[in-house]
Model the fold of this input.
Amino acid sequence: MRLIVSVFSMVIGTAWPLEENSVDNLYDEHFPPLHPNCTQSLTDLLLLRQEVLLKELKEAEQVSAGALREMLHILTVKTSFMSTEVSCPGNFRKCGDTCLYLAKDTDVTWDAARFFCQDLGGDLAVFRDASAFAEALKYVKSLVAVTDTVVWVGGSDHIAEGEWRWVSGEDMPRGTPFWGDYNYVREPAQGTAANCAVLYGPDGFLIHDANCDSKFKSLCQIKLMNN
Ligand SMILES: [Ca+2]
Done:
């Protein structure tokens, strides 16, 4: 019996110190002692924070680069589509980003000119900006050399005097480079006697107001599908 107690005491005496050492090691591993130098600890913290921020920035950069690649792809496809040559139907000629047709052999009233252009699938021509206007004048001048030619376009103030609108519903631009002068007065200046817009040959085909019942040539327009 005494022998058994001695052996048990030896076993306990050996095992207990080992268990204490293991716990201490585990604690030190997961809870390292505070650094004696507080400045050094703060530096470590800042460096760790910097590392996290850099990682976040890198991830954000990767996301941005992916988005930019996607946008570039879309722009490339769009540019390719826009640069594809689109032909205009029938006698229409491609002018800038639209199709124009000058019916130079027939003189009709403004209303009849609209019906004529609508029968062709379009309407009287409108110009959304100075560039489109310049393209149209270039086309008209290439077809009619006679400077007294007058051509209907799709603008009028017949609904409310002085409120000039395109047939597309938008307000017409005023002044240079669209409107010309008549007797040194800037058009439109003819009042209720003139409610429809023309390209006036004697003034270099700048826009003038004219009597809607006069008979002139028609400038028809069909817009391209991608406009
Ligand atoms: Ca008028």
